Amino acid sequence: MTSTVPDAEQSNAPPARAVIDARDLVKRFDGNTAVAGMSLTLAAGEMVGLIGPNGAGKTTLFNLIAGSLKPTSGEIWIGGRDVSQESPEKRIGRGVGRTFQIPKPFLEMTVLENVLAGAQAQDGERLLANFLRPGHVRRQERLAIDKARTLLEFVTLSGLGAQPARVLSGGQRKLLELARILMADPQAILLDEPAAGVNPALLETIMDRVLDLNAQGKSILLIEHNMDMVTRLCTRVVAMALGKPLAEGTAAEVAANTDVISAYLGATA
Question: Which of 2, 109, 137, 206 has its CA 20 to 30 A from that of 257?
Answer without folding.
Answer: 206
